[in-house]
Amino acid sequence: MLPSLATAEQGVLGVSEAPSGYDIAIDDHTPGTRTVYIVHMFTDGSAGCSFGYVEDPGMTMVRVGGGPVSGMFALGDLDGGVAVAYQECKVGSFPVYRIDYVAFGTSASCSFLRVAPHPTDGAMLLADCLGMVTRRFSSIDAFVNGDVTCYPGPTASSTWGRVKALYR
Q1: Residues 89-116: tens digit of each pLDDT
Q2: Which of these, 43, 103, 54, lies nearest to 82 by C-alpha position?
Q3: How far, in Å, CA of 78 to CA of 37, rounded?
Q4: Over the stretch 122-152, which tens digit does the pLDDT of each residue have?
Q5: 9-165: what fold?
Q6: Could you give the CA distance from residue 147 to residue 54 in angstroms, rounded to a whole number?
């Protein structure tokens, strides 16, 4: 489920197998290597972000590398939190961080990868091109070995808190 474009001022962070941010399904049915991206999506103009990262325990892929994509500068790491400077004002949807995995073909259905609040800041911080910072508490998850049960649909159950989180 993608967020409403009404929340787009500073956009939203998400995990995607595509650098564009539009592929939130990650395949771990067969062994091999996988690259996923932290993508800043739907921004009207941003210059940086900070975030944490969560890997579902049911996801058995092993992280073997990664770092900021070309043109980005990062401090920190995925385990302790990352801050990324974009080096220029950027608009639209673009990758900010790359993560490389070795996949064994054994991850559980609907296990997830999630951009999370930075452990120190308690939120995901998105900086606009003038230096104003927006705090976000929700992101777009990527599902490993996802099927229709992973994604809430019009008749799927959810909580009021999850619905409100889409509009923060």
Answers
A1: 999 999 999 999 999 999 999 999 999 9
A2: 54
A3: 12
A4: 999 999 998 889 888 788 889 999 888 887 6
A5: Immunoglobulin-like (2.60.40)
A6: 20
DSSP string, 100-148: EEEE-S-PPTTEEEEEE--TTTSSEEEEETTS-EEEE---B-EEET--T
* Whole-number Å distance between alpha carbons of 46 and 138: 18
Nearest CA among 118, 109, 1, 95 for reference residue 41 = 95
Distance CA 9, CA 43 (A): 6
The CA distances from residue 7 to 57, 99, 159, 165, 168, in Å, are 30, 26, 19, 11, 7
Helix (H) or strand (E) holding 28: none
Could you give the CA distance from residue 27 to residue 29 in angstroms, rounded to a whole number? 6
Q: Find the helix or strand (DSSP H, E) in which 153 lies.
A: none
